[in-house]
Design a protein that fits this description.
The chain has about 425 residues and is mainly α. It has one domain: Growth Hormone, Chain: A. Helices cover about 75% and strands about 0% of the residues. It has 18 helices and no strands. α6 (about 155-160) packs across α15 and α15 crosses α16. It is globular and about 55 Å long. The N and C termini lie close together (about 10 Å). The relative contact order is 0.17.
Length: about 425
C-alpha cells in the first residue's frame, strides 16, 4: 500500500505575510499548536525547578556534587523509558491522549518532590517525573507537525520548541521571588509545589485539541499499523541510530549548560540568587530568540546545515564563557545572550527533522525513541561534570558540553537532508 502525503484539509494555502505559518493552520491546527506549546512550556518549568533549587537542596540534604548531578541524570535516563512508552502510545491511542497522559504524569511527580523527606525519596520522585517528561515533547511535536505545511514546518516546530525558554524564564522569575521571600530551606519545596500548574492545561487540551484528521483516520485501521521493530531495521534503522547519536550530542551539551550554569555562577562566580537571576535572564532571552530565529534558518538553509552551524557556535561560546577571567563578570553577563541563543537554536530543527525521517504509522515511535534515548545517554554528561568538578571545578568540568556538540557533528554524517519533505 502506497502512503499518500499528509495534507490536512483544514489548512489554508493562500495566506501570506510574516505569520502565514500560523494562519495556515486552520482552527484545529491552531488549537493543537497552543496545546503543544503550553505543554512544553510547563514541561520546561517543572524540569527547571531542580537546577534552580540545586544549591538549596544540596545544603538541605547535605549532598555531594555527584549526588546532586544524579538528580538530573536519573530524570533524563528514566525519560528514555517514558519516551519509548509514549512513542508507542502516540501511534496506538493518538497524539492528544498521549499528550494528556504525559502532562499529568510529570505534574504529579513534580509536586511529589516537594514532599520528599530524604534524598532517596527525592531521587525516586524525580525519576518518576521523567516518565512524563520524556514523552510530552514527542506527543506535542508529532501532533503539530501533522498539521503544518512542509514549507513552514521548520519554523512551526521551532516556535513549539521556543516554549522551553518561556517555561524556563517563568521558573527563574518564580524561583527568584520564592527564594527571596521564603528563604532557601522552604523555598525549594514551594517551587516543586508550583509544578501543579500543568493541571490547568489539561482542561484546555481535553476540551479543544484533536488529532489531525489523517492521524485519527489511521488509528481506526489497525491493519495499517506497522510493527514497532520497523524503526530498527533497514534504512529506518540506520536513521534511528544516527538520529539518536545526534540527540545525544545536542542534549548532552545543552543539559550540561542548563544543569550546572546556575551552580557555576553561585559557587565560582560568587553571585547571589538575585544576581544569578539577572545572568540567567539574558541567557534565557537569547534562548527564546535562538529558537525562533533558527526555525526560519532551518526552512531556508536545511536541517543538517542548521544543526552543524549552531553546534559549532555553541561549543565555541561555551569555551569562551568558562574561560572568562575572574572579575570580568560584565563580559560573562553579556556573553550569556549569544550562548543561550546558539545552545537553543541547535534544537529548533529537531521537531521537523525527526517527523520527516519516519512514515506516519511509526512516526511517534521513531521520533520519541531517538529524542528520548538521546536525552538519556546525554544525561551522563552533567553527571560527568559532577564527578569531575571536585578536581577541575565546575567551570573546568563544563568542557563535557563541548564534547557533546562534537558528537552531534559526527552524527550528521549519517543522516539525510529532509527539508521540504511531505509527511506520509
Amino acid at each position: 500500500m502506497t502512503a499518500a502525503p499528509l495534507s490536512p484539509p483544514t489548512v489554508n494555502d493562500d495566506v501570506t505575510g510574516r505569520f502565514a505559518w500560523y494562519r495556515s493552520f486552520g482552527p484545529q491546527g491552531r488549537r493543537a499548536f497552543k496545546g503543544a506549546f503550553g505543554g512544553y512550556a510547563l514541561d520546561a518549568y517543572d524540569f527547571q525547578v531542580l537546577p534552580l533549587s540545586m544549591v538549596a537542596i544540596a545544603a538541605y540534604f547535605g549532598l555531594s556534587r555527584a549526588q546532586t548531578g544524579l538528580l538530573t541524570t536519573v530524570t533524563l535516563v528514566v525519560s528514555a523509558l517514558g519516551g519509548i512508552a509514549a512513542g508507542v502510545l502516540i501511534d496506538r491511542i493518538g497524539r492528544v491522549r498521549t499528550l494528556m497522559i504525559t502532562v499529568a504524569t510529570y505534574a504529579l511527580f513534580t509536586v511529589a518532590c516537594g514532599f520528599a523527606l530524604n534524598y532517596p525519596m527525592l531521587l525516586t520522585f524525580r525519576a518518576l517525573q521523567g516518565l512524563g517528561f520524556g514523552g510530552e515533547w514527542a506527543a506535542g511535536a508529532v501532533l503539530v507537525a501533522e498539521y503544518a505545511r512542509a514549507r513552514y514546518r521548520g519554523r512551526v516546530l521551532a516556535f513549539v520548541q521556543s516554549a522551553w525558554a518561556v517555561g524556563w524564564g517563568l521558573a527563574v522569575i518564580v524561583s527568584t521571588v520564592v527564594a527571596d521571600t521564603l528563604g532557601p530551606s522552604l523555598g525549594w519545596r514551594v517551587m516543586f509545589f508550583t509544578g501543579a500548574l500543568p493541571a490547568l492545561l489539561l482542561v484546555y487540551v481535553r476540551r479543544r485539541v484533536q488529532d489531525s484528521p489523517q492521524a485519527a483516520a489511521r488509528l481506526e485501521h489497525t491493519a495499517e499499523r506497522a510493527p514497532l521493530g520497523a524503526v530498527f531495521r533497514g534504512e529506518p534503522g540506520r536513521r534511528t541510530f544516527f538520529a539518536t547519536v545526534l540527540a545525544t550530542g545536542v542534549q548532552g551539551g545543552y543539559y550540561t549548560i542548563a544543569t550546572w550554569l546556575p551552580t557555576y555562577l553561585k559557587t565560582e562566580r560568587g553571585l547571589t540568587v538575585v544576581g544569578t537571576g539577572g545572568y540567567l535572564f539574558l541567557l534565557i532571552t537569547g534562548a527564546f530568540l535562538g529558537y525562533l530565529t533558527a526555525g526560519y534558518v532551518t526552512d531556508r538553509l536545511g536541517r543538517k546545515k542548521t544543526f552543524a552551524l549552531f553546534a559549532v557556535l555553541s561549543a565555541g561560546l561555551l569555551l569562551a564563557y568558562i574561560n572568562i577571567p575572574q572579575g570580568a563578570n560584565t563580559a560573562l553577563l553579556w556573553l550569556g545572550f549569544p550562548l543561550g541563543f546558539c545552545a537553543s537554536a541547535v534544537f529548533s530543527g529537531f521537531g521537523a527533522f525527526l517527523a520527516e525521517l519516519y512514515p506516519g504509522a511509526v512516526r511517534g515511535t521513531g521520533q520519541s525513541f531517538t529524542y528520548n534515548v538521546g536525552r538519556a545517554v546525554g544525561a551522563f554528561f552533567p553527571t560527568a561534570v559532577g564527578f569531575t568538578a571536585g578536581s577541575a571545578g565546575v567551570g573546568g568540568a563544563l568542557i563535557y558540553g563541548v564534547i557533546g556538540y562534537a558528537v552531534a557533528l559526527v552524527a550528521l554524517l549519517g543522516l539525510p537532508e529532509t527539508r521540504g519533505a511531505e509527511l506520509t
